[in-house]
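Quick one: structure tokens for this chain, please?
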Amino acid sequence: MARRGKKLIVAAAALLLGLSSAAAEDAQVNTIQDIFRHLRTCWRPPPPNKARPLDITVVVSFNRAGNILGHPRITYESAEATDNDRLQYRIAVMEALQRCTPVPFTDAMAGAAAGRPFAIQFRNRKTSPDKTSPPTQERRA
């Protein structure tokens, strides 16, 4: 019975290794949209008990190897954010960048993205209207 369990574990490990190598190939960043998608997969906003939801934008550049070039710069934060909210979200953005770099660029994308600034928006506010509030009237221009 123990031998059968070992065989199952070895088979599962081999399957996982095969899946992880396939996932690594699929994870190659080949377009500008892929860069945004890749960075957003690493986004973990602070929990609600630490900071209120807000939107934040960071401008960041990469070198050909996918590492951060220079210093990321926060260019936008929601106006109603407190100093604590801003601090918590800035930390979350920097942690997301650390988790996602180096970016696995394809050779073609590495040349196209190197040195180019990207404005990455991390949104954590609800975009749909609250269902309990009355509908608002839109004005036409």
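Confidence is low (pLDDT under 50) at residues 7-26, 127-141.
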